Amino acid sequence: MAPRFAFQISATSGRARTGTITxxxxxxxxxxxxxxxxxxxxxxxxxxxxxxxxxDILLGNTYHLMLRPSAERVARLGGLHAFMGWDRPILTDxxxxxxxxxSELTKRSEDGVEFKSHLDGTxxxxxxxxxxxxxxxxGSDIVMAFDELVPTTATREVQAAAMERSMxxxxxxxxxxxxxxxxxxxxxxxxxxQGALDERLRKASADALIDIGFDGYAVGGLxxxxxxxxxxxxxxxxxxxxxxxxxxYLMGVGKPDDIVGAxxxxxxxxxxxxxxxxxxxxxxxxxxxxINIRNAKFAEDLGPLDPDCACPTCxxxxxxxxxxxxxxxxxxxxxxxxxxNLYFYQALMADLRMAIGNDTLGVFADDFRARYTAxxx
Length: 377
What we know:
alpha/beta, TIM Barrel, eight-stranded parallel beta barrel, three-stranded antiparallel sheet, 43% helix, globular
């Protein structure tokens, strides 16, 4: 039987690492990008097509699933994997970010966050214990600790208080997860480092998480408007504060050039809605930068979205047709554009893994950035 959780680094290039996470539902190749399945679906793409793109793991959303259809219902229907038809690993976030960003009239206390549903106005309390219970009912393979997120523009006093509370919640998350019986015996728990843009707060958070002990560690509180330069500034030191022998997950990132820069700084896992959301609105990612297929210049363009792409969209449909579908609001347009973007992201991760394995990441990253930013279309 496969181990509950095992992370093995097979090669390095500078601070970057490539390797594997082995779990009972499959192997995750790192660096890994997790497509986001917010409501038990990666929007506009069937699970088998997500897998065909090269994805080893998906992300599910605790907040959205607890509200609709409810974690209890998903559990009665056989768990999230059976419910959505995905038999490989799933990571569920803790719900903390959505509670803070989507809900009205939140009230924070040491117990947790009381919030008003954005769907029907009902009130709920999300605590570390409830977050662990929801993720257990969903049956996820990687569970995220419950944390408190505050803006990077908040005062240092506010940031310090939120980080310290997050660490207390991390310990309660650990206890709640460990009480999960059979689920805890086969799943993994990740802690989330907080501290905004402050190196000393980040170090204190990392030390607290290491003292508690987790299978993996996330760098949280970034990609919330601080900009790439500030984010990279944190990533110049934050991954090194976390255990070298555990996976490091940068939450909510991001753009292709964000991912390349974060991999260079030692990050192993990523998630973002960008490839699917952009696909639905007509933006395609290519090796020479993103393009807006709505632009009139593509109306009679018989070329593929990306000549270097092996995806079914690029091999079966030209830009003119995609331009028509998207401009006409046809569902097929969203499906094909999203499929391409998922393939692009997974091809980028495969290229990064190969470059690290060959110890040529620096050359690859410089070439990627030069090509990706060469044209604005």
